[in-house]
Amino acid sequence: MSSPIVRLLLWMSLPGLCLAGGDAAARSLNAKIGRIETAVASLREVRVRLDWPAQAQQGELQLQAASVVAPDLGYRFSDVSWRCPLQRDGRGGWRCVGELRSGRGAPLRLALDLGVATTDARLSRGAAVVALHRNAAAPDATRIDLTRVPLAWTQALAAQAWPEARFKGGELDAQLTITAAERQPLRVAGPIALRGGALDTPDGAIAAERLGAELRLDARFGDTTRIDLDGRLRGGELLFGNAYLALQQRSVALELSAQRQGTQGWQLPRLLWRDDGILSAEGRAALTPDAGLDALDLDLRSDDLKPLRDGYLTGFLGLAGLGQLQLSGAMQARLRMAGGELRAADASLQNATIDDPQGRFRFDGLTGNLRYSADAPVASALAWRGGALYGLDFGAAQLPFTSGAGELRLQRGVSFPMLGGQVSFDGLRLRPPAGGRGLDIRFGLGLDRLDIGRIAKTLDGPAFTGELSGRIPQAHYADDRLDFDGGLTMQLFGGSVSVSSLAMERPFGVAPTLSSDIVLDDLDLEALTGVFGFGSITGKLDGRIDALRLVDWQPVAFDAVLRTQRHRGVPQRISQRAVQDLSSVGDASFVGSLQGMLIGFFDDFGYARLGISCRLAEEVCHMDGLGPASKDSGNKAFIIVQGAGLPRLDVVGINRRVDWPTLLERLEAVGKGDVKPVVQ
To answer: What is the rounded radius of gyration, in angstroms, for the C-alpha atoms of the chain?
Structure first.
């Protein structure tokens, strides 16, 4: 059963119940009323029966109604019945207390006092009580007091203003005055206290749990519905789309004015939210008929960004994989939306720090303002003191911006120091989501002589040396994907490594994915194998790694081919340690013209060619080399190292399918020197 309020209001139209006191000898009295109309509710097919035994001090009253409807309050009941012992109150009035039922709902207890000039009623179920008082001197006003009333009892009334809301829990205390004056809208006003409120909407876009509040309500229902709320929220959790608000036990000041005409969307001319020390917001808004955000003009202020994440930002940050982002500093902002799209934004930061605990990025000392305009041009500038990208430190920079026609642009190219070199940005253009399109960012990127040794040390990689330079004319971010035109070139081990077709998915989100093609040219094998602790191999190495794909920075797919190229004056020798390491990693064996223990007398061997390939898919490395080992081996064994000179030594792969995790374990063991020499 929903709210019992209408069941009490029906007594406003029944002063004729006192007819039972007219004749002490009367045995029974029956009345049938087709329709009763009041300012609040209408009753149909009403039956009243009074049985009063002769000389008795009380009679039995039975009342039935086929339906009770209060359209402005949203309540509708059927098969309403009430039975009670009717008796005089000794002051010229009547009193009746009994069980009230509606349909198949659980019964309630209704106590009614019909005084000479007043009407009082008390409806209860367990600890929940609804008390009503009317005075003939003020016939248009009815006082209703609620005590520990389940929030669900107000579902129908709330549906008049918010039909999508579904109340799931909580209790109300209230002292409400309902005014139903002729030719005036129905008005409900008074203080309300809520404990443990819980609600949601069918689409899950709005929800609340454990919500407490002390508010004053003033609502008018009619052709135009107007609701004014002011007071304080007392803790709880709120969800609005992607915005998750965790109030915990904090007290938040709230003021809200809302009005709607017919089926039009809500207008919110007054919004105020004040969570002291964390966030204050003030402005106005408008909603579409389906409760979407149509217009917004909002001023925001946070004097301490540190608690802002847990209180207000976890919903947005979680979608981007930044749920643990650390913030500090202060912020002021103003947002203006129209037609459901952002028209203007102005954010000012004071000595702010943004730090990702996962080490993906950090910005220190963010100061200045950032302004966006969908209309007339505006200028702004933002600076940072320093920061880091994936643990790689960079220096200070100042970024001058201009904005207009729905785009934020960098006025000129900007560079800042990083890893002993320079990083530059230019051509930055940012378009926020609009017209069904998501965020779109384009920029150019330049890297000049970055120290690869410092990169390797920061990332706990091998002790590489060299420089990283390159130019990406344009990078494009859209739909959570970052694509790069152009490429990067690294000078490594006396040769070069070129990266192209570079793209990233979810660059700062969960499980970021990177894809690229890599070309290696004239790398010095002696320097390369020395860094990896792989024995010693001399010569020049070329190769390619096509369709490389990393997920959360771990390789999951690639097609790699590595080959040596003979250069005049460059010796091609391979040490016995390198032969052993190569064999242990690639499931290979070695054979030579000298058999058995004789090979152990030689430190290194000449070779004509060296080549190996791996196509990684589904955690299996499909291996190949320079070609079949022999005609007799079919397609199973393949040559990795083709020997030359005396003593001649060939290294032959014997397994074309190698488990990728096992291969990584072997490479790690080689780097640590855990592979013991074995002479065949």
So the answer is: 40
From 114, 38, 103, select the one nearest 122 (Cα to Cα): 114
User: pTM for this one?
Assistant: 0.71
Exposure letters 122-156 (e unless 16+ CB within 10 A, then b): bbbbeebbbbbbbeeeeeeebbbbbeebbbbbbbb
Return the H-helix or E-strand segment holding 95. strand 94-102
* Helix or strand run (H / E) with residue 529: helix 525-531
Q: How far apart (Å, rounded) are the C-alpha atoms in residues 647 and 438?
A: 65
For 13, the 3-state DSSP assignment is helix
Report which residue type is found at 163: P
Tell me: the pLDDT tens digits for 227-236? Answer: 999 999 999 9
Angle CA 144–149–151, to nearest 5: 110
Return the half-sphere exposure (C-beta side, CA atoms, 13 A cut-off) of residue 414: 18
Distance CA 676, CA 82 (A): 95
Q: Which neighbouring-strand residues pair with 203?
A: none
For the beta carbon of residue 663, count every other beta carbon within 10 angstroms: 19
- In the numeric block, the tokens 């443990």 are attached to 196
Residue 282: burial class (beta carbons within 10 Å; 0-12, 13-18, 19+): middle
Q: What is the mean pLDDT of the chain?
A: 85
Closest by CA to 133, choosing from 124, 143, 123, 145, is: 143
Other C-beta atoms closer than 10 Å to the C-beta of 111 total 16
CA-to-CA separations, 455 to 384, 464, 466, in angstroms, rounded: 22, 9, 10
Tokens of residue 164, six digits = 């999508």
Helix axes 576-585, 660-671, angle to 10 degrees: 160
Count of C-beta atoms within a 10 Å radius of residue 528: 20
Is the pLDDT at 477 greater than 70, yes or no? yes
**Tokens coding 214:** 């002390």
Torsion angle, alpha carbons of 399, 403, 409, 410, to 10: -20
DSSP H or E run through 661 = helix 660-671
Question: Which tokens hold the place of 277?
Answer: 């020390």
3-state secondary structure (DSSP) of residue 36: strand
Run of H or E residues at 578:
helix 576-585
Partnered with residue 384 across adjacent β-strands are 397
User: What value does the mean pLDDT take over residues 298-312?
Assistant: 94
Among residues 63, 113, 123, 120, the alpha carbon closest in space to that of 93 is found at 113
DSSP 281-348: EEEEEEE-TTS-EEEEEEEEEES-STTHIIIIIHHHHHHTT-TT-EEEEEEEEEEEEETTEEEEEEEE
